[in-house]
Specification:
It contains nine helices and 16 strands. The protein is an alpha/beta fold. The chain has one domain: Spore Coat Polysaccharide Biosynthesis Protein SpsA, Chain A. Strands 1, 4, 7, 8, 10, 13, 14 and 15 form an eight-stranded mixed beta sheet that branches. The chain starts with a strand and ends in an 8-residue tail after the last helix.
Length: about 260
């Protein structure tokens, strides 16, 4: 089963960081966030990926074409025609990656339609290239198979952008920053889709997965949700970029596999 990752957007809300890099290539610690997302799936033995590229697509190609060079110690023998020996201390992930050019201006639904040829008549997973979570992919898949509908979306409780006050009358008893909200669920990505999903998207570059396709799937009774109450965070802003890196650097990243 292939995992489709939407990586083509321009990252306007985090433009101060994405001016040089597309948002999925912005690093958390040593690795770009898309690498972290792929590692989540790989932990559950999903190792075939289709990356829907657009903005600065060559940055993805440079990274994965030079992956061993980027991540492994090497010895260069200049006296022997520049012979390069790659050391084996670093484990190379068993990934097969299709880097698909899906257009500079295409919206998410159009990008999904344009990679249909790489999926064929098979179930596939789908997510965004800018969010990490400790979602259990196996449990998500088991839930999807249990209901027989076309699409499962993982719903999450967003991280509060403000500190949460715990009050008793007029007295503040506790103050908690960066907590997940207790009310309301939102689209957290981490979809599972049947091939019939492609009937709901089109080659129209204005086709946005989050608009008419998901609305039509819901109206047709073909959209179910897997509720994830654990950690989930997107990297939409510089503040979130800093928080994710702080978690990683402190070895407190819940998504680390």
């Amino acid at each position: 089963m292939k995992v489709v990752i939407l990586c083509g957007g321009k990252g306007i809300r985090i433009r101060d960081l994405s001016e040089e890099l597309p948002k999925p290539m912005i690093p958390i610690g040593r690795y770009p966030i898309v690498h972290h997302i792929m590692s989540i799936y790989s932990h559950y033995e999903f190792n075939e990926f289709v990356l829907c590229l657009g903005y600065k697509s060559w940055k993805f190609k440079e990274y994965f074409l030079n992956y061993r060079l980027e991540t492994t110690d090497i010895t260069i023998d200049l006296a022997n025609s520049g012979k390069v020996d790659f050391h084996k201390e670093h484990k190379i992930p068993p990934w097969k990656i299709t880097l698909a050019e899906t257009g500079m201006e295409a919206m998410t639904g159009c990008r999904i339609k344009r990679i249909q040829k790489y999926i064929g008549n098979n179930t596939f997973m789908l997510t965004y290239g800018d969010g990490v979570s400790d979602v259990n992919i196996k449990s998500l898949m088991d839930f999807h198979r249990s209901h027989g509908k076309l699409v499962t979306v993982t719903s999450v409780r967003p991280i509060s952008r403000f500190g949460e006050l715990v009050v008793d009358g007029d007295a503040v008893k506790d103050f908690q920053e960066k907590t997940q909200t207790s009310d309301g669920l939102i689209n957290g990505g981490f979809f599972v889709c049947e091939p019939g999903t492609f009937d709901y998207v089109s080659e129209d570059e204005n086709c946005s997965w989050e608009m008419e396709p998901l609305k039509h799937l819901a109206r047709d009774g073909q959209l179910m949700t897997y509720v994830h109450d654990g950690f989930w965070m997107p990297m939409d802003t510089t503040r979130e970029y800093i928080l994710l890196n702080q978690l990683w650097n402190k070895n407190e990243a819940p998504w680390k596999t």
